[in-house]
Design brief:
Largest interface: A-B, 23 and 23 residues
Strand content of chain A: 35-45%
Oligomer: homotetramer
Number of helices of chain A: 2
Order of helices and strands of chain A: EHHEEEE
Structural class of chain A: alpha+beta
């Protein structure tokens, strides 16, 4: 059963912070990727297996609004949800929080491609997601 | 003299590519950061020195449109230009190309903060930028 | 009270694995660094605070023996222990395991330096470590 | 023709330096990997192609001696040379320099494995290396 949303917790690691002691702004896209992979897994799919089957997802667009800095060792929660899905693309939105405080929000559009990088239809078994 | 734009070349390194052999989508924000730092330097400023002086820039917003994959060892050019500057914020736009081909375009908003993370005015010596 | 050893758990993240799906060999030094920082913290010290006080540790030597690959999402335990401490240097040894299986073992020598990078004595409050 | 040594230049990038402004000690293993890949390429081989052919190299041992810090933007030269090659393993040694100054030296042992991670013989076309 394909879910539309999933929440994970992520602890900020020392090598991820910058000279100010803040989580580096480039790391947020990695966190979002972790959110997508875990949403997929919560739905019973394995990203590494998909890649071995020749199904890849490439990021076509990404956008982040940074609201409040996150620091080393803080425990954050990341909510990932699917906001739109077409035959070949999936839009996700993300909310990264420390407790109730919004650390960042963002969105991405990913496209399904084959090993040659050509757009292909998202395999039947990955859609249509349903609300949890 | 503060410039409004600057172009650098960046070679894609092996540890930066993903399982498909493409430059990982999270790396683009690091490349953009390199573009900002080099624009600053071409204007006669040193980012590390600014940080030692208690002047920091934090990213408030970032956005990337990925147009064409970049691969290991490719030589890319990144054009960074300032599109807007207020007393406390600077907007940059970016074009990453392989020859004539657009690999990605993006934009960021950065804010000037002190060591405590409080918004402060951009030091006089960093503005107003002029066209090159 | 300064401890001579400490154990943490680390979960392998997706961006840390290579094209084979294995934890990239360069990441192990980051894990060891996490182990050192947590050993310090378990002893009541804060690495970021030390840096603000002008006390830095630089790595002089590092060595890793890779025994068994670690994969995405695996839960590993890292035991960090101090094997030798002089007035200016600390030697650590590391064992990274998945359950009972040894994933890697390694060692480092770190030296205490000031902000200018000159070797200095390890502050009194950081030594002498005692067994837990 | 397989070469026993090769030298490349590497410029230290901003995201690679730590809070002291020094190249992070974990990055050196990435630089060494770049050195191996370029030595392979100078010999007419393509690492990505080898992986597609099911030939992988995993690192069994690594060791680094850090001699002098490297800073942002410095141009370094890395000399990579093969010190020993058996049917299934290759030992490399590395010297990283800034001009004449030795920044670090190190060594690695890599083993040839198939897609399942089982040790296999290094393909005939990759050995025996000859001095350049």
């Amino acid at each position: 059963m394909n879910l539309t949303e999933h929440t994970i917790t992520i602890q900020v690691r020392y090598p991820e912070v910058d000279a100010m002691g803040y989580l580096h702004h480039g790391r947020f896209l990695q966190y979002f990727e972790m959110g997508r992979i875990e949403l997929l897994r919560a739905s019973g799919h394995n990203y590494a297996q998909l890649e071995q089957d020749g199904v890849f997802f490439v990021v076509a667009k990404a956008q982040v609004n940074y609201k409040s800095p996150a620091r080393y060792d803080e425990q954050l929660t990341l909510r990932t949800h699917i906001t739109r899905q077409t035959a070949v693309r999936i839009d996700h939105a993300y909310e990264l929080r420390r407790g109730e405080v919004l650390v960042a929000e963002g969105s991405t559009t990913i496209a399904c491609v084959n090993r040659q990088g050509q757009v292909m239809e998202i395999p039947q078994r990955l859609g249509k997601p349903v609300s949890p």
